[in-house]
From TrEMBL:
It is found in: Cell membrane. Belongs to the binding-protein-dependent transport system permease family. This is Peptide ABC transporter permease. It comes from Nocardioides luteus. Pfam families: BPD_transp_1, OppC_N.
Length: 295
């Protein structure tokens, strides 16, 4: 049996993910830098137990409030002799866990409410759901956050519950607005005409078309969650001690700011870079996924 060989080899199709990433890097250089910083943040948070030079709770009584590089501590120590760099790396782990859990809980609730409300827009279902969201949004965010966190007490679980109340209305607005547009599309009308039920339409035609705007909103909300979690920990009603947290480290370093500024500078700098990276990524993804902005 002979096999005929053509003169040219067949073209190899590049994966869409790789080509899309290259196009994103070319069109949004700041977004690409932000994506790299976020990837580094995630890697550091996941690998903190292996890359941290010391146990974040271990106390070195010989080296208390020592500066960076003294006594084998790259970023110095705090008032209890704990390594500042190790606590900052573990603080990234805590912040990542809380932010992901908050987006999962608040995003799921806000998505369900927004999709159902948008699909039944103008009906009593939409009115009841949106009046509940309006009541939640009528309370200033900081007041609602402090009240719920203080009521439930300091813990990681309660912090996630309190922060979820900030995420639900934002996701609801985006999901409802997009669903109001999607339900008028011809393919949705065609699905109704052939007898597709409401759950099938929402899952098959609604959710896939919501992913792009929700991804942008999620990136921006991630930055808000990082700041809010740090604020709660700074006030003593967020992550309980001795769990490492950027906000608690800032609070502890405030009293030692004149003699040990590294206690505040290191976690503050990491927090600022992380928040800036998520904001830049959200803006870049918004422009990249919007055809009008790209043109």
């Amino acid at each position: 049996m002979s096999i005929a060989l053509s003169g040219t080899a067949p073209a190899v199709r590049r994966p869409r993910t790789r080509s899309g990433l290259r196009r994103f890097t070319r069109e949004q250089p700041l977004g690409a830098i932000a994506l790299f910083l976020i990837s580094l943040f995630v890697v550091v948070a996941v690998l903190a137990p292996w890359i941290a030079p010391y146990d974040p709770l271990a106390q070195d009584r010989v080296n208390i409030l020592t500066g960076p590089g003294v006594g084998g501590h790259p970023a110095g120590t705090d008032e209890l002799g704990r390594d500042v760099l190790s606590r900052s790396l573990y603080g990234a782990r805590t912040s990542l866990l809380i932010a992901v859990a908050t987006l999962a809980l608040g995003g799921a609730i806000g998505l369900v409410v927004g999709v159902v409300s948008g699909y039944f827009g103008g009906t009593w279902v939409d009115s009841i759901l949106q009046r509940a969201m309006d009541a939640l949004m009528a309370i200033p965010s900081i007041v609602l956050l402090l009240f719920v966190a203080a009521l439930l007490g300091p813990s990681v679980r309660n912090t996630v519950i309190a922060l979820s109340l900030l995420v639900i209305p934002s996701i609801n607005r985006v999901a409802r607005g997009e669903m109001l547009r999607i339900r008028e599309e011809p393919y949705v009308e065609a699905a109704r005409s052939v007898g597709c039920g409401t759950p099938r339409i929402l899952i098959r035609y609604g959710l896939p078309n919501l992913m792009a705007p929700l991804f942008v909103m999620g990136s921006l909300l991630f930055a808000v969650i990082l700041i809010a979690e740090s604020a709660l920990s700074f006030l003593g009603i967020g992550t309980p001690p001795p769990t490492p947290s950027w906000g608690r480290m800032l609070s502890e370093g405030r009293s030692q700011l004149e003699i040990a500024p590294w206690m505040t500078v290191v976690p503050g700098l990491i927090l600022s870079i992380s928040v800036l990276a998520f904001n830049l990524l959200g803006d870049a993804m918004r422009d990249f996924l919007d055809p009008k902005q790209r043109r």
